[in-house]
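Subject: mismatched residue count in predicted assembly?

I count 724 residues in my input, but I want to confirm that the predicted structure covers every chain. Input:
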Amino acid sequence: MTFQIDSGIDLAGQEVGAVNSADTVAKSDKVNRDDRKTVGEINHPDPRMTCRDVNVWYGDKHAIIDVNLDIGKNEVIAMIGPSGCGKSTFLRCLNRMNDTIDGCRVTGEMMMDGNNIYGKGMDVVLLRAQVGMVFQKPNPFPKSIFENVAYGPRIHGLAANKTDIEEIVVTSLQRAGLWDEVKDYLEEPGTGLSGGQQQRLCIARAIAVNPEVVLMDEPCSALDPIATAKIEELIDELREHYTIAIVTHSMQQAARVSQRTAYFHLGDLIEVGSTDQVFTNPKHQLTEDYITGRFG
Amino acid sequence: MGLPKYTTDIVRAGLEKRYKREAHFRRLGVAAIVAGLIFLSILFVSIIGNGYTAFWQTFIQLEVHLDASEIDPEGTREQNVLAAANYGGLVKQSLRDMFPEVESRRDKRKLYSTVSSGASYMLEDYVKANPEQIGNTIQFWVPADDDIDMLMKGHFDRDKPESERRIKDDQIAWVDKLVAEGRVESRFNTIFFTAGDSRDPELAGIWGAATGSFLTLIVTLLLAFPLGVATAVYLEEFAPQNKWTDLIEVNINNLAAVPSIVFGLLGLAVFINFIGMPRSAPLVGGLVLTLMTLPTIIIASRAALKSVPPSIREAALGVGASKMQMVFHHVLPLAMPGMLTGTIIGMAQALGESAPLLMIGMVAFIVDVPGGVMDPSTVLPVQIYLWADSPERAFVERTSGAIMVLLAFLITMNALAVFLRKKFERRW
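Triage response: the counts match. Full output below for your records.
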């Protein structure tokens, strides 16, 4: 082994795993481990979340390696990269959805409002009320459209009475751009909507809790181009109220909706920068290879 | 030697053989189903053929003079006075009046035995309910003795020599005379459905056993369903995946395969001998059947929980539901149909179970209908076993009759399971 393993790896077994994965990387990409330091500006002048030295393991597999990244207020940050590069894993760390996966271990610091979200005092329920999530596959509850949106506010006790709940539901559906389509069918099951509508329902459900950050994990990958266009438009509008981190496979989508872009490659954060700069003038060879379609 | 020119040639060459095999396989499948249906219909035909007569019972009309000097000489009409009267004597008197030619003590005893020994109790009940009839002569229907009932139902061969028959020539003559007078009638056998067990087949019913079964199942359901569901939810949703939970899982699967009589032995040792609970009680029966059905319910419930898509769990967690809220608001409602189905199938198993209950004394001869879970009682399958063991010819049809009732319960429960599954099944 010729290259150096980064610090922050404390167990021998994981070290071996990391070496192996890095080994295959080196063979397939001909890029030395040392050449995969993050380039670009990871800091944001007005950060909402600050991630430092984040490492994630799935059992022995080192999925995220020493990632440092700020997520700014009211910005849309896109995370791109080839399959298995860790961008979804990183996103799911931001509201600790990875807690549900057996054998997943996270080290490092992810700060939000001065608290480490992986710190001892952090309450997961509280965190997820602040950091909402929209998933790859639309997953409305098998309940009515109204109940889907009302569920979050109800369990968190955000509404004192029925009128409040109704107001939240209406506002959320309006913000999600779904209100005009479903206002007469609020008691119909959410699962009966079309795929694009279901995804917007899920967005309405996420923003009904009034989170500060909304995480979106490939929200359009199961949708047709028209539904995708609607969601992209919606993301742009939501930026006014929320910070949005979106993982996407579509570079066009990243270019259209985001202000900043982060490129991940096999667990490393390779490049961060303004979306314009990353797509027009990438600084790192790997980024350039990816956005010009040489692999991915 | 050349290869065929086209792939289709090769495929076509093998096609006939493939279709032949497929047809052969289908024939085998149909044959298996037909064989199954034949056996099932043989079972049903033999049970129903043997058992349907149990729902009818021969009754004999007696002309009873309710002699006031016998029943209530002082005319007080008090219940305890009425209860003390000799009704058996009145029934016998009425039979003697109808057949004055019978004189010897032996013949008289034979005459008395043509009506059920329960006749006097029925007369007593009647008089207590209708005291104004005292002093009158009434026409009173009483059940015939089981032998006479069998004679009327054609289960006796009259042509056999008298010494080989339970019913003698003069008894046959009396019955024939009663039939000619229109005093014999076949009626719906309400006793069979309302009475407890009895040594006299014409007085024996399944109500005691059915009540026992019901109480036992209630205890089983109340214990096994919450315990089973809670266990399944904990193991599936909350427990960490480690060697302990693996061990527990393996053991639950093993418990499902333990012969049921072993649970009976356990119940005898723990609940009766160690804890000191009463023998023959539905409470103990329910506890034993709980142990027996728990693995079934746990396994079915875990399967139901596993079938809930993970996306629903993520959705709930994603809006900030706690783990318990996720389970109770989203996962459990979706898993409930599967859990209910598993529970009802477990209950049906428990309803049909007899072996473990034999070990805890529910096989005793119990006449009274149990009033609670601590009263001695028996259950339907054990009642069937007891009757099948009895020598009287009339118990043969009652055995089959009880089997029909048990099967009806089982079919109802399974139909309920199917109905619940269809009703609560949700798409996502």
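Chain A has a mean pLDDT of 83. Marking this ticket as 'not a bug'.
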